[in-house]
Each structure stands twice: as structure tokens, then as C-alpha cells.
Amino acid sequence: MTVLANGWVKKVSVTPPSLKDNTADADRLENALKAVLNAEIADIDLTISGILPELLRKNDFNLRCILFKDHKKWCLAGITGDDDKIVAGLAVDLGTTTVVLRLLDLSTGLALAESSFINTQISIGPDILTRLHFAEKEEGLCELNRLIIEGLNRAIAELCKSCKIEPSDIYLLSVAGNTSMIHLFLGLNPRWIIREPYIPVINRPGCLNARELGINANQFAKAFVFPNTGSYFGGDLIAGILYSGLNRDEKTAILVDVGTNAEVVLGNKNWLVACAGAAGPALEGGVTKMGMMAGPGVIDRVYADPETGLFSVGTIEGLPPRGICGSGVIDLAAALFLSGMIDIRGKFVPEACKTRLKDKDGLKHFVLVPANASAEGIELSISQADIDSLIRSKAAMYTILETISSYVGISLSELSTFYVAGTFGSLINPRSAITIGMMPDLPEGTYKSIGNSSLEGAAMILKDCRLMDEIDAIRNSITYIELNVNQDFMNRFSAARFIPHTNLSLFPSVSSDGLVKSRDSDGKVKSSLCKAHES
Amino acid sequence: MTVLANGWVKKVSVTPPSLKDNTADADRLENALKAVLNAEIADIDLTISGILPELLRKNDFNLRCILFKDHKKWCLAGITGDDDKIVAGLAVDLGTTTVVLRLLDLSTGLALAESSFINTQISIGPDILTRLHFAEKEEGLCELNRLIIEGLNRAIAELCKSCKIEPSDIYLLSVAGNTSMIHLFLGLNPRWIIREPYIPVINRPGCLNARELGINANQFAKAFVFPNTGSYFGGDLIAGILYSGLNRDEKTAILVDVGTNAEVVLGNKNWLVACAGAAGPALEGGVTKMGMMAGPGVIDRVYADPETGLFSVGTIEGLPPRGICGSGVIDLAAALFLSGMIDIRGKFVPEACKTRLKDKDGLKHFVLVPANASAEGIELSISQADIDSLIRSKAAMYTILETISSYVGISLSELSTFYVAGTFGSLINPRSAITIGMMPDLPEGTYKSIGNSSLEGAAMILKDCRLMDEIDAIRNSITYIELNVNQDFMNRFSAARFIPHTNLSLFPSVSSDGLVKSRDSDGKVKSSLCKAHES
Between A522 and A41, whose confidence is greater? Predict the structure, then answer.
């Protein structure tokens, strides 16, 4: 069986010992590895040394070694006989809401299976801040740590079962997550993450023993945890940068993760500048209040015919609607604005909304789906408060983009590519996001949805040993701007609290009367919306 | 409180974080340490990172850091507040028979207390070979490992209690032992140590986590285990070399450990050649059969008046005699030879021994202490078989010395210093050892007894951080000769089976008629013997 040239699995032939060469087995293996790698190797773990003598002699001194590299030094994560048994790796995107796992064959680099589960810490609180506060209670941190580790172990067991392998066949793990989640995963107290000046315990967790973390994998398995660049710019983003290739491109591009937080990195092969929107109002709060997470039957698309004023919705898997997710809300807000049903401040216009506008508990609601058309017989509506919340969120998003670009003295219009990462991000219709002024008015082709870039980045390093150094390079080249202390922020934020913006010249494709003048086509508004959805 | 300049405890002031500097606490400490040490530092353990944020903030960002260095890279073994609490280190000589511990204050380098215990594995077998065979039984290795770890933990608890500190105040351990004992201590299977070509699992155990080894010390404590140069030349000898200074001297000297095994190293600052006598008959077997270990009431000195033929004995602590230890047996054999009571083959001469010679179970016995003069009312005697055994052992010892010196093309007479290490070695009267031809005929001032050099070497590195590199240098500069395959060995051995030797010119100070012609004095034989004892 051949193995990937730049993978982590290396075939090694160890020189058998003789009376003339009484070097210990562990040192003998170390010497053989040095020759194969042409590099120094860290001390071999005592536990690996323990099984080495028998394994060497049973396999005529030919082994497969599973290696890893941390801070430029190779280390040994496992040894097996030279046979066809699968040697697996596990990439993990440790999201606040959803945890995604991908199992790979480390010898071939091929994916074996993928699964996801709702973060088991949801039982403590859906948002990270609730969990961080809970962590300060007695045994709170232990409980949060136990929840995520148990959740992972259950998912690992199921994933392995589906591939007919054992957790003990997993030798490498690559874990990317935001700084807070990583702290909870590692059992580190996040107390100072949420207090000025927002200091994490650790920036570079590096390469750890999976067993010591409580993870059910091979007893020698190493878990690489992506480094962070501060409390609000986590390893998930570093993994995302790696996957996007932002750090390898001559041209300046931007990567925006609009998941449960708003994190942004701008740069090229020479420099990277990053910031995150956790400090100000971000999309997270607004979106979760008015809707639900993407899933079957959830509205992720809203179409409006500005001529007839009729709305239609698209749901995930085409099931009867039972709620609305973030991308649906952005579509809806864009449609409401284009139809004149909300004004530039995002306030409902009763004359335009007509009978669709209802009063509930003293708050105006716009009915999107009547009770008889919904999955559960309940009217689906969006309140003025929901829209207000979205406006704050989109304003925060745009302000972050403006702040970071002005920091480096570049105009958003100069960006070669606008990478949109995250599950939520991948559902967003860029046209709608431009319409409400959440994202800059760039040609639609500039937008590239890259999906779960955190998972993809985590998976990448399991396939190519040359990328480890790149991760350090990315981390070290990032200049992180703390938005909390940026004086321009609040001024920009106020200007961005209009649809699309106080300064309309920033959004030439969005006319002041609410009609889309698409750069790509001069067709009808409806076709423009549809086209964007189909793309 | 000031700390040793080259000790392992360093005072470190960490820059407090600010909004302008959001580096994580662990990275902040790492940077501070790099500046203090002017060197790279290994990743800080996750568990240390875990307690770091609170400790930093409680101590105004001033800490005492307990460091260690392994393979030229510094690592952190613990952190405490900047106060006067004792930070302790523990040096361990892990002997096959006796385990000796010395507790030190790492800040000052001063010894706090010392204790020893009979190796708890004695219950399995007094000799190492019995234990190594036992290790191959089911659970045998676990049992042996459990025994030594439990023994150590008991001793650590008592030692700490005597100094009014806690085991958790111990941050560094330095452990020296023979290769087999170290394998059992680390739970590594010694199976291939006792099978040709005699390969240990590990040469350089390096710096391990004490807790992972089961040792009751601080949760972060590091245990440095001295490296070995093969199955029969262990870390106890490397520690001994370090203590003797053999590796720093211009002149060529020799270090001989005549403990439970016969290990020899010859060299100077430029080279070191080593060998060990486990393969041939060594002192161990002979000595343990006929006597007992040194202890109160044990005969460690024998005097004979060659004119009157009268014997007198010296015992440890001057108590009535209850047995004889190795050094006493060597004295006795020398006295018997000088009195003409044994011949050059070591056979009893009945005409000279007269009534002191008795037949027991068909074997000739020489009565040293009559029943009425002994502690337990039992006649103390030495049999022909015991003498034969000693002759084999002394021949092996001398052969090893000859073999190693001829290997490097040097005469034993050229040696500047003859270091004798080990508890047994420290009791040997060099004059007697020369008389029976066990050690070369050098001026008595050449012999230097250095006691438990393994413990002393282990303690040295706890006091001076500059010595770690020297240990690697010693190990790397040793050329180990495997005696088993040396063709000259058996020829030399046969020639050495006479008293003092077949080639009398090698022992000019020992006359062929059994009378001592001391190089240092031309006085009477008796005074010569006494003088040697008093020195």
C-alpha cells in the first residue's frame, strides 16, 4: 500500500540491532525517522516506546509511523505494522452552535465520512457568553468541558461505526474553533476572555495528547488545536484563511465569517489584518431572536414581486415552512425594502404593508406566512423589533468591514475576492446583503461562498504535512485590531443604520427608491433576485 | 528571597496585558521566560497554563518559575507566587538493592534531608535477572513497576514529613539508575535487555511528567531520568561520571562501580570508553553468596597478624559480628593469602589453617569468628566455594579493567586517578583489593572512593542548570565496548584467576611469597594493612 507523499503516514525501515550496534529501539526508530524526514524529531513518547520493541520484531523492523509537526519539530503520534489497516485522522470544526466532524484516511487523504451534532453545551446556553459566565460557577467549567468532550466522543463512536473502524484507529485530530470554545474544550478558564483587556489563557495550544483531553482516539493520538490571535479571532478563522488561500494571493481579498460572530480578515500574501465584531451588536443576536437555525422546513429564501407586492418563500428541502433562518431574514428585509414596505430606517410603512401588518403585544408584525400555509399551523411573522435588530446587526457588519479597510487604507471596492465563510454565510444571497447595506456593493462575481472553511482548513492539514508551517505563518502575520477601542467605530455604525446606508454613493447598485440596478444585468428586479438565488 | 544564579528557579516579571497588547497569558509568560533565559522554551503544559491567569493576577504578574532543560530546550516544571515557600527537588539513586533519596531546596541548592530504603522489588528477587524474568510473566512488569513506585512514594512522603513540606512542593526529580531498573521504573518491558544483542527499549528517557510515572510530587513536576549507553551501562554511571569529573580532566582516569554490577569507564575530557561486567562472572554473585549487605554488626574489615596468624575483625558500628560484607571478604582473602592460608589458586592450605579449617557438608570452611564471639551464637565461616567465587569475581573485575585499558592502548599504571564508586566500593580497602589482584597495583593515593556517585550526580543537576548539556555530552562521547564479544576476555580471565595474577610483574607491590611490599612504606605488613584501613 502506498501512502501520500506529503501525508503524515511514513513507511520506515529500522535497522535491526546487532552486537555491534546496541542502540535502544526508541533511539533506533528516532534515527530512522530523522533519515526519512531529514529533520529533527521530538522525543518519542514513553508509551509509544513501550509497545515499540514487540511491534518492531513482529514486523521485521518495518513500520508505518504516523507523524505530526508542531512548531517546526516533528513528533510521533503512533506506530503500526506495515499493513493495510486504516490509519484515520479526524478534522473537527468546534462551533458554538454546531460541531462538525470529518473522518479521513491519513494514508490516502480521502474523506471517509462526515457528521455533525448540535453543540452539547447548548443545554447550558445557546450563546457563548452564557456559557462563559456559567464557567465561573463552581464546577461550571468542568461541566462545560465534560459536555463537549462527551458529545465529541459519542459522535466519534458513531462516525467510526459507520466506517467500520474503531476510535483507536484515529491517530491525528485537527481541531478548529473560536477562542472561547477552544478554552472550554481544553478545560481552560475563560474568565479573562470576557473582561477587559480580553486576554485568553493560551494563543497556541499546539499539539496535545488526545487522551489527556479525554478524547476517545488511539492512546497515542495527537490533537492539533489551531492557534488564535486573541479572544475574538479564533483558530476557526485561521483555518478559514488557510482554506481560502487569502494568505497566498498577490491580490488583496477579504474573508468574512458570518456565523455566530462577525469575524473579518483582510489581506494578501504579504500582510493580514483581522478584527471581530463580538464587542458591538453583531448578526448573531439579531438573527437568533427572530428565527431559527437552518434546517428542513426553514425558510432560507424570500422572493417578492415588487410589481404585485406578492411574497413567496423557499424552504430547505422544500418542506412546509416552520421558521426562518438568517439568510431568509436578509432576503425578506431586502424584499421589504425593495417593495417599499420598510423605509430607509427599517421601519414598517403601513400604507405599503396593508393587511400584512398586524399588532401583537403592542409591536407591529409583518406576516410572511399565514397560519394555514405553515408547517405547524402558526402564523410566521417578523416584528419591528426583529427588523430593528437586523438593522443593528447589518450596520455592525458593514461598520466592521469599513473600519478594517480604512485601517489599512484600502477601499472595499478594490477587493479582488470577498470570501464568505460559515454555514450561515453560505446561505446568504449576496444581492440581498448588498441591498440592505450589510455587504459592500461589489460585482456579484466577487463574492465567493466557501462554506465551512474552518472544517476544510482543519481537514487540509491532515492531508499535507507542509501546511503546518503555514499555520504559524498565518498566525504570526495577522495584525489584530481591537474594535472596542476604535474611535471611528460608533460614528461609522450610526451612518450604517440606514438602508442601504446614509451615504448612498457607497451603494450605486441600490437605488434610493428601493429598486435594484444590477451591475450584471439591467433586467427586472425579480429576475435579478432569482438569478442571484440560482447562482 | 534570592535564588541560585544557575539554579532552576527563576524570578519572572510578566508584562501586564492591556488593550494594546492582547497576547494570551501563556504566551506572555513564554515571552518573559525567553527574555530571562535568552533561549527558546518548549510549549507550556496545558495544565500549567490552566492555573496561570489567576496566579499572575494574584501576584501582580510576578512569579517564581521552576524550569528544566531537556535536549537543549527549556521547559517549565512549575510556577508559584514570588514568596518564601520551599520549592524542592528530589535526587534519586535507583539501585537494584538500595534506593537513596535526597531532598534539596531548589532555590538555594542546599540539601534538606536524605533517606534510603531497600528496593521494594526485593520481594520478587534480590538480583535484577530474577526480576527481569518475572517481568515477562502476565502482569509481572506492572507488579514490579507498582512495587518501586509505591516504595518511592512512601519514602517521598516520609522524607517530606521530616522537612515539614508536602510532596506537592517537589517540582523536579532527577533519577539515576541502571538500565534495567530504569526500565522497570518507567514500566518499559526489559525483555530484549537480557537477550542477545541486549537492546534496551530506550536510551534517553529525558524529561518526563512525574505524575504520569505515578510519582507523588507536584502535579506539574518533571522527572529527569539519566540516559544510558546500553543495557549494561546505565544512567547511574553517567551520573557517576558527571560527579567524578572524569569528563572534564585532561589526564586519563578510570571510574569503577563495584556495586551490584561491575561497570567501568575510562577516559578524559576528550574521550570516554565504557564497559560493564554483567556478561562474565562479576563480584555481585560471589559476594552475595558468602555474606550480607553492609549494615550494623557486619564485618567490613579483617586484620591478620602474619607473624602470629591471629585474625581480628572490625564491624560496622562496632557491634558483635553477625555476618560479613564484600569489603570484609576481600580483606579476609588478602589476609588469608598474606598468611599463606590460601595458595595462589585461592585453595585453603590445611597446614597453615590448622584447626581453623573445618569440614561442613563435604566442603572446607575457614572459621573466622567462633560461635561464642558472634552476635547470634553462630560460627561465622567462609567456604572453599565462597573463596572460589570471589576469585572468579576478582578475576572478572581485573579482566574488565585490563580489557578496557588495552582497548584504548593505555596501561593501567598510567592512570592519574582510580575512582571507586558505589556503597560497596567505598568500603573496599584498596590495599586488600590490590593484594588479591582485583584492582591494579597503583600507588594507594591514586584510589579515590567517591561514595554514592550516582546520587551525587543526580543531585548535582538539580543545583546547576548548566550541567544538563554536559550529561548529553558525556553520553554522546562514550564508546561502549560489549565485553561478551571480546575474544581476549576469556584468555585474560584465565590469567587473572590466580592471586594476585599469573603475571606477577603486574603486581610488584605484592610479593610472590605473600608478603606486602608497600610502595608507600617499608614498614611491617601489619602496619601497612592498618594504615590502609585508617586512611
Answer: A41
